[in-house]
Predict the 3D structure of the following.
Amino acid sequence: MVRDDLLPFGFGTKWRKVSGIVEYLQKNQIKKVLIWGALHGNYLASFTTILRYFGFQVETISYSKDPKLKTYNERLVNLHSHTIHCYANRKEAEQSFSERTKTFEGLCLQEFGIHPAQSNGLRPFWQQLEKKIHEILNGIKLESKRDERFYHTNKNHANMATLVLEIGSGASFLSAYDYFRDSSIFVLGVMVGEKKATWIPKIESLQKKLGLKIQTISQEMILNFTEKTSPNENISGISNSQRSPFTNNTTRFAKTRSKDIQSIQEFYTSTNIILEPIYSAKSLLQFVEIQNITGTFPSEPKLNNKNENFPNFNQNLPLFYLHQGGHVQHLDLILEVFFK
């Protein structure tokens, strides 16, 4: 596990994104930022908090079906916004944002903060991560030599690994894919909430907005996961150890299930790592619970071919999961465990 959740407030990878935007604002001597999004989401909470911390004036346009609902993220947004307007639905908020951009003197950030500066903030992190992964792989290689049978089976994969992260807005995944595209590290994205079929057509537009190279991404690099079965269930006589947990079905976004809460508590008890029910608990626990992920994946990935999309998963490769944080909104889920 790559623990980016240890950054302040558990904001995780969003600190990386905002750092790029802060650098852009400072370089261009921009003092004000207009931002919009869901009132109770991690995006507004993290961006308003960090931008206010760095001394920028933040004007926020938000939306919520229940404006009276009190959450930790909502408190952060209200506390760190100089002015804030809340609407009953996303469409009204977007229209208000669009109208306000016509007269706003400062940086207008689209929903989720999509901006080329995000990529600039993330890139140094990928560089550090690449170095760290190869250090770990070299350690694995040295240890594996003690078991000659294992070493001869895996020596061709000694410098290869798979990096897995969830796809929310898609900025982190697309940035990672862009950075690692010619390396021996394969990047897999796990869809959370939005369907793969509706997100894929947005890729080129997002790449342009993030200032990334326009390139086709194989659908095999993007996974959906299913909530139809528990790890011990059988489907038509096929056990989960014989099938992939990832399908074309998705769970409802932001839906917290009782089994997720229990899993989060158990995981925290055994590891002291806090997961959250929106992203990490749904995807990471699929990897933890289902040991043998199978599918139509080639056994020998081809490297350094810019004209060919890499196959997405090889069971012999070490798997690194990026914990992107975002648990501050859900600390109540582990308080019972914490105070025992």
Notes: The radius of gyration is 21 Å. Residues 228-253, 291-313 have pLDDT under 50 and may be disordered. The CA atoms of residues 46 and 312 lie 31 Å apart. The first strand starts at residue 2 and ends at 3.
